[in-house]
């Protein structure tokens, strides 16, 4: 909060929607640059497609997806081919507008040709995806899981998963899709924002009944039915790690552009919302990743037709309060400065029903006397919340005691709800991080700081330094490859702000080179071999330059 305007640097900047303040030169920010763009439906699908091409089995937790309008002919052709190969296959597809949320504009189709009939696809790009027809049902209802994931650091990668999440239920008993029920959103879409408007929505104060429950209550139920809940958790952890591995290359490109290395800048972390569907056989499927998951801990109740009131929601409180509290504990900037005597003020999240209904959610308590922020004064309507270290509020020296209230607050905090999964399981997953290494090559040749696209000279330098051109692959062919791929990616209309080759185009060109050079091997081996070659050549070049420097 800036009671007197912002003059001093802050420890933590809490942005409401996205990373948007380029004038922060220190401290922590709760958003990564480019995260919103990276998790949009189309960008996520592209990133998952790259990983599915490299590691089809490892990434089969993401439904087969096509990008509209550009892949409409491919979608129609592939579905026709699959149907020809397997006439008993009666698929359903779900069309989701890019950048949409809360179920906005989503519809189901049985026949690929129905896409053209249903909407203005040219004006609104979308993803069409295989619909999971056999979800796990509880009380005959379809539900999905919202899990909170803390991306604490990008380099080195640090990921935490909240031990509990939310289960959001449909409000009509589920039936497998037929032409008759395709339009019944309360049966097929689990969005809270849609189902709240169904007459069947049940708001419950218990965490294991009603239309929104804790995920742990579902796990208890599954466990009592004999399901292997341990295996389910391990599948979910693996899904989260693999998804973040798919997203990091693009995030790193944005990061170096907004916060160039070697310049003063903040450190970022972010709470992400993972939407996961469980199939009947308990296999988790990724639906989407939300860069700005709702942290509301209130529920909208209709008092009379059209008149709504916000009432506390115990389920939301139980899950979300713990996530924010423990995120703050984990990123605590004072932890890193062990030797300093100042320490971070106690931010205490209180339950909404203990606070005035209209305003506070985040409650600041135990501040030193005379501090301008009044306890309980952070309003949820603020788009940026700032936690500033309090001058004069010193950690007690050896032998001194913590201020009573602060000591009490620390002791009273429950154990962390966020569980570290990376680097804990890094060894198991490091072989998947190939595109990360391709992105490192891309960033290295970007040249101008602050850019996200590679120019033709940068691409040529990459080819030359890595010694990828030869008698079979001339520099003229290199230029043609650059122009062809760059033109195609730029015509897809993703980002017209900058000209040049974007990361995905570079990855495509890199895969092309790898396939050319190491024929008849699986794609991931071809790519791994080419990366090794490039890294070796660049290391040798670097060594030579150092030697010349010494000489
Ligand atoms: P939005 O961002 O608009 O909420 P989602 O991708 O989360 O879009 O989809 C909305 C809802 O549609 C999900 O919560 C889920 O219930 C359902 N859904 C989405 N994709 C699939 C799918 N491939 N199979 C089955 N159900 C899906």
Automatic annotation (TrEMBL):
GO biological process assignments: microtubule cytoskeleton organization
Keyword line: ATP-binding, Ligase, Nucleotide-binding
A GO MF label: ATP binding
Record's keyword annotation contains Ribonucleoprotein: no
Gene Ontology CC, one term: ciliary basal body
Keyword check for Nucleotide-binding: yes
Identification of the protein by name: TTL11 polyglutamylase
Origin species: Erithacus rubecula (European robin)
Taxonomic lineage of the native organism: Eukaryota, Metazoa, Chordata, Craniata, Vertebrata
Gene name as annotated: Ttll11
């Amino acid at each position: 909060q800036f009671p007197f305007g912002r003059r001093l640097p802050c420890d933590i900047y809490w942005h409401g929607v996205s990373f948007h303040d380029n004038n922060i030169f220190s401290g922590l920010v709760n958003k990564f640059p480019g995260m919103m763009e990276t998790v949009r439906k189309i960008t996520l699908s592209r990133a998952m497609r790259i990983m599915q091409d490299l590691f089809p089995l490892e990434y089969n937790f993401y439904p087969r997806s096509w990008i509209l309008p550009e892949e409409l002919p491919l979608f129609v052709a592939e579905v026709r081919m699959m149907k020809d190969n397997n006439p008993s296959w009666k698929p359903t597809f779900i069309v989701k507008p890019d950048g949409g949320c809360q179920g906005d504009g989503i519809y189901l189709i049985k026949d690929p040709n129905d896409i053209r009939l249903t909407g203005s696809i040219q004006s609104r790009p979308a993803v069409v995806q295989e619909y999971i027809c056999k979800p796990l049902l509880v009380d005959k209802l379809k539900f999905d899981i919202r899990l909170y994931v803390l991306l604490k650091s990008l380099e080195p990668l640090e990921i935490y998963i909240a031990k509990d999440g939310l289960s959001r239920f449909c409000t009509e008993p589920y039936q497998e899709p037929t032409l008759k029920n395709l339009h019944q959103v309360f049966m097929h879409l689990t969005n809270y924002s849609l189902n709240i408007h169904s007459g069947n929505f049940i708001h419950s104060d218990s965490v294991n009944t009603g239309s929104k429950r804790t995920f742990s209550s579902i796990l208890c139920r599954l466990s009592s039915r004999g399901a292997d809940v341990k295996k389910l958790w391990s599948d979910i952890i693996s899904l989260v790690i693999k998804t973040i591995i798919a997203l990091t290359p693009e995030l790193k490109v944005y990061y170096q552009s907004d916060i160039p290395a070697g310049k003063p800048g903040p450190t970022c972390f972010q709470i992400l919302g993972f939407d996961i569907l469980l199939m009947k056989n308990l296999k988790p499927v990724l639906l989407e990743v939300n860069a700005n998951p709702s942290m509301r801990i209130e529920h909208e109740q209709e008092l009379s037709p059209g008149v709504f009131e916000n009432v506390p929601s115990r389920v939301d409180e139980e899950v979300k309060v713990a996530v924010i509290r423990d995120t703050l504990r984990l990123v605590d900037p004072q932890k890193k400065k062990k030797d300093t005597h100042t320490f971070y003020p106690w931010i205490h999240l209180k339950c909404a029903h203990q606070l005035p209904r209209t305003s506070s959610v985040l409650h600041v308590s135990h501040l030193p006397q005379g501090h301008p922020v009044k306890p309980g004064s952070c309003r949820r309507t603020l788009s940026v919340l700032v936690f500033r270290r309090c001058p004069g509020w010193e950690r007690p020296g050896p032998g001194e005691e913590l201020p009573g209230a602060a000591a009490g607050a620390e002791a009273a905090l429950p154990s962390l709800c966020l569980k570290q999964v990376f680097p804990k399981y890094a060894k198991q997953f490091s072989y998947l991080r190939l595109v990360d290494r391709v992105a490192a090559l891309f960033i290295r040749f970007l040249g101008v700081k602050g850019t996200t696209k590679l120019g033709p000279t940068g691409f040529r330098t990459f080819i030359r330094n890595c010694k990828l051109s030869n008698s079979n692959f001339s520099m003229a062919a290199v230029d043609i490859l650059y122009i062809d791929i760059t033109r195609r990616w730029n015509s897809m209309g993703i980002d017209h702000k900058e000209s040049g080759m974007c990361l995905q185009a570079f990855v495509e060109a890199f895969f092309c080179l790898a396939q050319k050079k190491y024929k008849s091997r699986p794609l991931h081996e071809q790519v791994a071999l080419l990366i090794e070659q490039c890294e070796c050549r660049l290391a040798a070049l670097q060594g030579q330059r150092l030697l010349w420097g010494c000489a």
